[in-house]
């Protein structure tokens, strides 16, 4: 068995194809570019880069055995998938045999935290010169229902891809009642809390019945007359709740407090992030972490039921290598580490940079870009990383296969 990865230059975003050359299977892990990624040095704007990657993926993998895993629903991991759906281009329809997503569709609290984070983000962006977010959870669900033949749910201990890989996160049950505290702190009413939870329950029912076709559902894409819920109804209610949220929290005097709650929502939604590795340990071990928080990686690394391997060929570093999500992977002897990062147009862009501690890992560093890396002095040729294992940039290319 031989594994390799094709890493796309999604700047501050994720788009990686995990390839198994022994059976010619391909697993795309996320496709998104951060809303505020600065891609002007080559592509001019994010839309052009998104189109180039989408067309390249369709050209290479439409006739291959390709599946998709969505680690979580943040813009920088799904915006490209939403573009595929919204473009209406037939080449993106049923591009993947199976789409894997986290098993959260019995938990309206988990869905509510995703939705509320989107509402607060829309509020934060509306007065700025930056474009509004376009990759809502409902958009992603539209892609999932149109872009794959099958949808499979993952949680800890579930094996997938014909038993090759196993999910290490999320657990089957995650307490998410923190959402109630955040709603309180944002100044949203008890009636709003009830409305967003009721709305989230409708989304859960729609996913279970229409997309997963469980709960006795047998309807196709779009409407489900049996449960009386359509995607059009959900979108209408989404817009109504979004407007209500903005009307309540639109207060410049509360910006700092709102930012605090936004960060809490972001962290809360990382709880539903998929982390996985290969099942059978050998010379081709892989660990993909999405945007796992440090606390999640610590829980995974100390668990007794499904243990991490002692060494890896590839480790995808969590959350673009940023300092707040730092986890020491040195004990797992990685041969190559993948860091997906790039400059963002944001007032605290430094917080989005690659943490210097990752530069000290003795491994080959595979980075999408180096223009927001704290390890570099002038260029990445004069960096901590080269001292400890060397570095290879995807930058200037659309993608590169790493063996």
Write the layout of secondary structure elements.
Layout: E1 3-8, E2 16-20, E3 25-29, H1 46-61, E4 65-69, H2 75-87, E5 96-102, H3 108-125, H4 137-147, E6 148-154, E7 159-160, E8 165-169, H5 178-185, H6 190-211, E9 223-224, E10 229-230, H7 231-249, H8 255-269, E11 275-278, E12 286-288, H9 294-302, E13 312-316, E14 334-339, H10 356-359, E15 364-367, E16 376-377, E17 379-383, H11 384-388, E18 391-393, E19 399-402
Parallel strand pairs: 3-4, 4-5, 5-6, 12-13, 13-14, 14-15, 15-18
Antiparallel strand pairs: 1-2, 1-19, 2-3, 7-8, 8-11, 9-10, 11-12, 16-17
Helix pairs in contact: 1-2, 2-4, 3-6, 3-7, 3-8, 5-8, 6-7
Please explain how this structure is put together.
By secondary structure, the chain is of the alpha/beta class. It has a single domain, classed as Metallo-beta-lactamase, Chain A (4-Layer Sandwich). It contains eleven helices and 19 strands. It has helices at residues 46-61, 75-87, 108-125, 137-147, 178-185, 190-211, 231-249, 255-269, 294-302, 356-359, 384-388, and strands at residues 3-8, 16-20, 25-29, 65-69, 96-102, 148-154, 159-160, 165-169, 223-224, 229-230, 275-278, 286-288, 312-316, 334-339, 364-367, 376-377, 379-383, 391-393, 399-402. The strands form four sheets. It has an eight-stranded mixed beta sheet. A seven-stranded mixed beta sheet has the order 6-5-4-3-2-1-19, covered by helices on one side. A two-stranded antiparallel sheet has the order 9-10. Helix 3 (108-125) crosses helix 6 (190-211) and helix 3 (108-125) packs antiparallel against helix 8. The longest helix has 22 residues, at 190-211. The chain is globular. It starts with a strand and ends with a strand.
């Amino acid at each position: 068995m031989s594994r390799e990865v094709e890493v796309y230059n999604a700047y501050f975003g994720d788009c990686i194809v995990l390839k198994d050359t022994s059976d010619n299977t391909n697993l795309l892990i996320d496709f998104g570019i951060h809303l505020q990624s600065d891609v002007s040095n080559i592509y001019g704007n994010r839309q052009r880069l998104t189109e180039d990657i989408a067309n390249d993926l369709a050209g290479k993998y439409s006739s291959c055995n390709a599946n998709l895993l969505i680690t979580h629903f943040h813009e920088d991991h799904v915006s490209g998938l939403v573009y595929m759906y919204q473009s209406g281009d037939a080449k993106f329809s049923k591009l993947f045999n199976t789409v894997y997503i986290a098993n959260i569709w019995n938990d309206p609290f988990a869905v509510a935290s995703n939705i509320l984070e989107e509402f607060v983000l829309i509020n934060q962006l509306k007065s700025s010169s930056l474009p509004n977010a376009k990759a809502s959870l409902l958009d992603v669900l539209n892609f999932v229902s149109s872009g794959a033949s099958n949808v499979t749910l993952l949680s800890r201990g579930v094996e997938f891809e014909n038993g090759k890989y196993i999910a290490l996160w999320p657990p089957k049950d995650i307490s998410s009642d923190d959402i109630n505290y955040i709603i309180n702190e944002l100044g949203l009413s008890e009636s709003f809390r009830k409305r967003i939870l009721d709305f989230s329950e409708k989304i859960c029912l729609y996913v279970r019945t229409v997309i997963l076709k469980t709960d006795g559902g047998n309807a196709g894409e779009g409407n489900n007359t049996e449960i009386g819920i359509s995607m059009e109804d959900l979108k209408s209610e989404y817009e109504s709740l979004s407007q209500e949220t903005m009307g309540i929290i639109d207060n410049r005097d509360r910006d700092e407090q709102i930012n605090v709650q936004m960060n809490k929502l972001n962290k809360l939604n990382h709880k539903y992030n998929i982390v996985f590795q290969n099942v059978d340990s050998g010379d081709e071990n892989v660990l993909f972490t999405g945007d796992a928080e440090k606390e999640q990686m610590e829980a995974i690394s100390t668990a007794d039921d499904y243990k991490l391997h002692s060494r890896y060929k590839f480790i995808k570093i969590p959350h673009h290598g940023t300092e707040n999500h730092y986890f020491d992977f040195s004990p797992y002897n990685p041969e190559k580490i993948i860091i997906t990062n790039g400059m963002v147009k944001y007032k605290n862009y430094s917080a989005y940079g690659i943490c210097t501690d990752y530069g000290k890992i003795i491994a080959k560093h595979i980075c999408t870009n180096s223009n927001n890396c704290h390890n570099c002095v002038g260029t990445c040729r004069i960096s901590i990383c080269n001292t400890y294992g060397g570095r290879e940039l995807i930058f200037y290319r659309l993608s590169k296969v790493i063996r």
